[in-house]
Amino acid sequence: MPHNSFYAPPAVAGTAFEDLLATFQLHVPRFKALPPNDRFRWKSDIVIAPGLGALRRNRYSADWSVATETSVEGLNIVLPLAGGVEATIGTRAVMAPPLTALLAPSPLSRQIRARCVGGEYASVTLSLEAEAVFRVLSALFEGAILSQLDLAPLLDLSNGAGATFNLLAQTIVSGMHGPRLLERSPKAMALLTEGALRLIFENVPHRLSHRLDRELLTVAPRHTHLAIDFMHANLHQPLTVIDIAEAVGISVRSLQAGFRQFRNTTPVAYLRRLRLETAHAELSSPENTLLVSEVALKWGFAQMGRFATQYRAMYGVSPSETARRASGTL
């Protein structure tokens, strides 16, 4: 099992159920809790991430449940690590074991119950902001509302798109704990959040899935050129694929089709290449005074290991080696 913040114990612990509820008060509006019947120990922490929402890690020693009442169109994603989650989502009763994500639109989450196995429950919950959800949904399906989407409530994390989503979730959690690099890189946070939501809406069944299969993608070369010009002009901004498509005046899927057809790549990969080129230019300048990690964050790279790997693949040397050569210390 990977040793990262995704699996690490939460920071705050206690035995009083009321103390645990107090950690929910500010971030879970209008909820009712059914307390555990057994002796109770808990560990929990929460991080608020602009552009994402709330990120919570939990561990419990006994079952308990929470019911919420809200009209806010956010999306709660619960990833059980031990035990499981029972939930009523709209009219559906479901059970999510480990390696399964529970997808719970906030207005439809009637009740969510933590179920211990062997006296143990652990989970990570991503509560994605209504604004971020609306933005991605609108780009894919104009006029769509999350609570009316009839989104399937379970996502298998063991393969395919689910496995990719699991890696994204681990990246987000790791980036918001420890050094909390994602707090310093809104570009990376915006891209990760959009990527996670797009994975869900493009791969989890719902009542508008058929639009993805039969949508006619018509895009001219000029749209791709306009998109590239927009990327160059706005590299300093936390660009997402939605931003680029809106600026060009086409759908996200048309934008993706254009880059596949005319550039043999994806908009995300092309934007990453531009950011790598810009980071390389800055690290190569003798006038640069920033650390390698600061340059990486400046241009949207939150994970130094991944940045270094991508940089070396593109330039044949490490970022730090480029910086040393520029400073004349080699």
Which structural class do you get from the secondary structure elements?
Answer: alpha+beta
CATH architecture identity of the largest domain: Sandwich
- Order of strands across the widest beta sheet? 1-3-4-11-6-9-12
Which range does the strand content fall in? 15-25%
Spatial shape: globular
Q: Mean pLDDT across all residues, rounded?
A: 88
SSE topology string: EHEEEEEEEEEEHEHHHHHHHHHH
Question: Level of helix content?
Answer: 40-55%
CATH topology of the largest domain: Jelly Rolls
Describe it for me?
The protein is of the alpha+beta class. It folds into two domains: 12-191, Jelly Rolls; 271-327, Homeodomain-like (Arc Repressor Mutant, subunit A). Helices cover 42% and strands 22% of the residues. It contains twelve helices and twelve strands. It has helices spanning 17-24, 130-140, 160-175, 186-203, 209-214, 221-233, 241-248, 252-263, 267-284, 292-298, 304-315, 319-327; strands spanning 12-14, 31-34, 42-49, 53-60, 64-68, 75-82, 84-89, 92-96, 100-105, 109-115, 121-128, 154-156. The protein has a seven-stranded antiparallel sheet. The radius of gyration is 22 Å and the shape is globular. 37% of the residues are buried. The mean pLDDT is 88.
Provide a concise account of the structure shown:
The protein is 42% helix and 22% strand. The chain has 330 residues and is α+β, with helices and mostly antiparallel strands. The chain folds into two domains: 12-191, Jelly Rolls (Sandwich), CATH 2.60.120; 271-327, Arc Repressor Mutant, subunit A (Orthogonal Bundle), CATH 1.10.10.60.
